[in-house]
Specification:
Blueprint: E1 5-12, E2 21-28, H1 48-63, E3 67-74, H2 76-82, H3 84-99, E4 106-111, E5 123-126, H4 129-132, H5 134-157, H6 163-166, H7 172-181
Parallel strand pairs: 1-4, 4-5
Antiparallel strand pairs: 1-2, 2-3
Length: 195
């Protein structure tokens, strides 16, 4: 059976000391022309402004019925309780479920070490997929912008940590803030047991 739909998946936020992990799934409908994504790059290689522009473009393409996408988050509490890989799998499962209506008509491309649940028989994991396939690159951008926005909201709640700057990653400024103020509600205790 020919695959009618393509889904690309990537995650963001595996390494930070605080906040959730995010997994985005992007669905291309059969009539989508990938030339709409000419020049797209992996989110790590784009400025925040460029990522926002790509997200705006994705929202327009979604409104026009060419693509669909979804982002799912797993909180620091899930990460601490069950581990980062469980949290990623949980978010991935949610995102794919929202996008994929017909597993046997859908081919799923995943970045890095990610795999979809076994109920999706047609899937391929691609090392550096976010650099090689536009569908995974777009997923990486959507996941990154979604997570960054969440961390900016947390920055308003916990202003002393500078989450709007480092987005929860382990920068010198972040470590200094932890030493000064201790841990806040969104810190991943399991990542910080040595502090």
């Amino acid at each position: 059976m020919e695959k009618k739909y393509l889904i690309g998946i990537d995650e963001v936020g595996r390494g930070p000391l605080a906040g959730p992990v995010a997994v985005a799934a992007v669905l291309f409908f059969p009539h989508f022309d990938t030339r709409h994504l000419k020049g797209i790059k992996d989110s790590k290689k784009l400025s925040p402004q460029k990522r926002e522009l790509w997200l705006e473009k994705a929202i327009t393409l979604k409104k026009d019925g060419y693509i669909d996408f979804s982002v799912s988050f797993s909180s620091e509490k899930v990460i601490d309780k069950k581990g980062i890989m469980h949290a990623i799998r949980l978010s991935l499962k949610r995102s794919v479920k929202k996008m994929c209506k017909s597993p046997y008509e859908t081919y799923i491309y995943l970045d890095g070490g990610l795999t979809a649940p076994k109920m999706y028989p047609f899937q391929k994991t691609i090392i550096r997929g976010d650099e090689l396939l536009s569908i995974i690159a777009l997923a990486s951008i959507i996941a990154k912008v979604g997570r960054d926005r969440k961390m900016e909201e947390y920055a308003e709640q916990f202003p002393e940590y500078g989450f709007e700057q480092h987005k929860g990653y382990g920068t010198d400024a972040h470590y200094k803030a932890i030493q000064k103020y201790g841990l806040c509600a969104i810190h991943r205790r399991s990542f910080l047991h040595t502090i």
